[in-house]
Amino acid sequence: MDYQRPLQSTLLCLSILVLLGTACNSNTSNSGTTARGEPITSAKSLTEDTTLAVWAELIRGTEIEVAKVYTENPVFLGPTGSLGFPLEEQIRYHQIRYKDLTSLVNLHRTIASEERGYLYEIGHFTNAKQEEFKHLLILKQQGDTLRREMEFIAPASAVDSSALLAFDQRRTDWMELCNAHNAEKLVTSLYTPDALYYNHKPLIVGHEAIAKDYQYMNRENYSLQLKPIHIELVNDRMAYEIGQCSGSYGGKYLFVWYKDSKGTWSVLMDSNI
Question: The domain at 7-155 falls in which architecture?
Answer without folding.
Answer: Roll (3.10)
